[in-house]
Design goal:
Number of domains: 2
Structural class: mainly alpha
Number of strands: 0
Mean pLDDT: 87
Order of helices and strands: HHHHHHHHHHH
Shape: globular
Helix content: over 70%
Distance between the termini: 77 Å
Low-confidence stretches: 18-28
CATH topology of the largest domain: Serine Threonine Protein Phosphatase 5, Tetratricopeptide repeat
Length: 241
């Protein structure tokens, strides 16, 4: 069966389109994996570089996923800055990511992960200045993460984000250790392989002086993500009774 030049051209267009989609998807995965590796080894220089690159890409693209990746880079950077006890830099990075996260949500308001990330970035501002931070960003953190759960009740990472937020939120404002642990246990029930849930569960249990349980949680986090330096540090600092 012979195909006309027009048919061949059409097939080439389809093939090229599929290849372009595949390439874009692969590039997204590679960028995300690179961010995770930099976060795991607390590599601020690489995170800063990636955040700037992804922000530049997002400024040139109307697509929501470009803004999302830039926001994710800033969120990881803020997370590592807090791990390294640089609260001022953590706030600056989280606030820099807010605009990108808002753009992603504005472009696709039905994406649960976009709302989760926006809420997490709002929440990442709070620990550096709990009182003023909660007043300015507390509502955003709560409402956006709850919206994520409303859109997708099985999004385990949303429960991690809410649990971390509740950990930093005073009990008088509805937060506290017990509330936070319920969220993290829900995340683990939804996704038993989510290392982030075990890591933060360990952090909260350690704060509550439940060291044996904290060590179990840190150990499981490292089993799932052996390269996470912060988990290793937390485990080493938790007494073995």
């Amino acid at each position: 069966m012979k195909l006309s030049m027009k048919s061949l051209g059409f097939m080439r267009c389809i093939a090229f389109g599929l290849c372009a989609i595949s390439f874009a998807a692969t590039a997204t995965v590679v960028a995300t994996n690179e961010l995770v590796r930099a976060r795991d080894r607390q590599d601020m220089a690489t995170l800063d570089k990636l955040a700037k690159q992804l922000s530049q890409t997002a400024s040139q693209s109307p697509k929501s996923d470009a803004s999302y990746r830039a926001a994710l880079a800033y969120s990881y950077s803020a997370e590592v800055a807090m791990e390294l006890h640089d609260k001022k830099k953590a706030v600056e990075l989280a606030e820099a990511g807010l605009d990108q996260a808002k753009k992603a949500v504005d472009a696709n308001a039905n994406n649960a992960e976009y709302h989760r990330l926006l809420g997490e970035l709002c929440g990442q501002v709070i620990p550096a200045n709990p009182l003023l931070g909660a007043m300015k960003y507390g509502t955003c953190a709560r409402d956006e993460i709850n919206k994520a759960i409303e859109l997708d009740g099985k999004l385990a990472l949303a429960y991690v984000s809410r649990g971390v937020g509740n950990y930093y939120l005073p009990a008088t404002m509805g937060g506290g250790v017990d509330v936070a642990l319920k969220d993290l246990d829900k995340a683990i029930a939804l996704d038993p392989n989510l290392s982030e849930a075990y890591l933060w569960k360990g952090v909260i249990l350690k704060k509550a002086n439940r060291d044996a349980e904290a060590r179990q949680a840190f150990t499981q986090a490292l089993k799932l993500d052996p390269n996470r330096l912060w988990a290793k540090e937390q485990l080493s600092k938790t007494p073995a009774h």
